[in-house]
Amino acid sequence: MHVVIPYVVGALLFGLGVYGVLRRRNAILVLMAVELMLNAVNLILITADVSLRPGLTGVVIESWARPGSGVPAADTGTGGVLALFVIVLAAAEVGVGLAIILQYYRMRKAVVVDDVRLDAGEERVAG
């Protein structure tokens, strides 16, 4: 399989996620679009790790970057580790985002992003 295909699929997924963030009005659909963008980043990280690893044969990997002392440099999956961090970030984002959306829905009975006022807590003083 050509290495270009995952890069193109990742770029298309990221573009679709950006379109979803910019065009959707429902907050839950916006969160889904952000998740799509994060999954595209994961795909690109893993593909870059697999495709660029053979080109780094002469590069010495530092001792802190190796998970074990007997593991050769070709077996360390840096892209996989970074993808794992992105997955953890995505899980935290979903948890916090859904909690905020549910609380807003309980208060306003709607989750339309265009109607959210960011300065609703400030009091306006005339004078």
Model description:
There is one protein chain. The protein is mainly alpha-helical. The protein has a domain at 4-55 and 77-110: Helix Hairpins, CATH 1.10.287. The protein has helices at 4-23, 27-52, 78-108. Helix 1 (4-23) packs antiparallel against helix 2 and helix 2 packs antiparallel against helix 3 (78-108). The mean pLDDT is 81.
Annotate the secondary structure layout:
Blueprint lengths: L3 H20 L3 H26 L25 H31 L19
Helix pairs in contact: 1-2, 2-3
Return the string of H and E elements: HHH
Q: Based on the structure given, which CATH architecture of the domain at 4-55 and 77-110 is correct? A: Orthogonal Bundle
Taking all Cα atoms into account, the compactness measure Rg is 21 Å
Bulk shape: elongated
Query: Low-confidence segments, ≥5 residues, pLDDT <50?
Result: none
Strand content: under 5%
CATH class of the domain at 4-55 and 77-110: Mainly Alpha
Number of helices: 3
Pfam families: Oxidored_q2
Membrane topology: Multi-pass membrane protein
Protein name: NADH-quinone oxidoreductase subunit K
Subcellular location: Cell membrane; Membrane
Question: How do you describe this structure in short?
Answer:
This protein is mostly helical and 127 residues long. It has a domain at 4-55 and 77-110: Helix Hairpins, CATH 1.10.287.
Task: From the structure above, extract its key features.
127 residues, 0% strand, 61% helix, elongated, 3 helices, mainly alpha, Helix Hairpins
